[in-house]
Amino acid sequence: MISTNVMTKRKRSVHYVNNKEFLHALIEYRNNIEISQCKNLPKPPIPNYIGECFLKIATHLSFKPNFVNYMFKDDMISDGIENCVQYIHNFDPEKSQNPFAYFTQIIHYAFIRRIQKEKRQIEIKNKILEKSGYSEVFDSSGSIDGDSYSDYNSIKDAVHSKLRY
Description:
This protein is mainly α. It has helices at 19-38, 48-61, 73-86, 99-132, 134-137, 150-164; strands at 143-144, 147-148. Strand 1 (143-144) and strand 2 form a beta hairpin. The chain starts with 18 loop residues before the first helix and ends with a helix.
């Protein structure tokens, strides 16, 4: 039996971010900011590559088991990218050579804040329904404005179950 020692390279994920290239791009961007400040020019825009890295990190993180089943996943990704852009100036290459970990943490906490915000909104909506009398919104036949929808019955059941707890 003949064995071959040829190893096949794994195909890189669509969401793969090369940490060294990402670090180099961030250092270059910081240098451009310093040059523009010395010349009293406006702050340069964030390069597309850095923006793509933010998007890849946020999108891949949204597939993790603790974030995968939320209806507002796009909002979570948007919040994560927004926070990365907001705090890009805080990354210091002299302190850390790992921008991937730094921005992943920023995105992770942005996801958690979005989830908490959405849960608060759901609680507020449920309290409004409770106080306004959900029986006014849903009658016993399940019809609203003369139309019968099974979807509204499932919503009514969800409201009932929330009120029990």
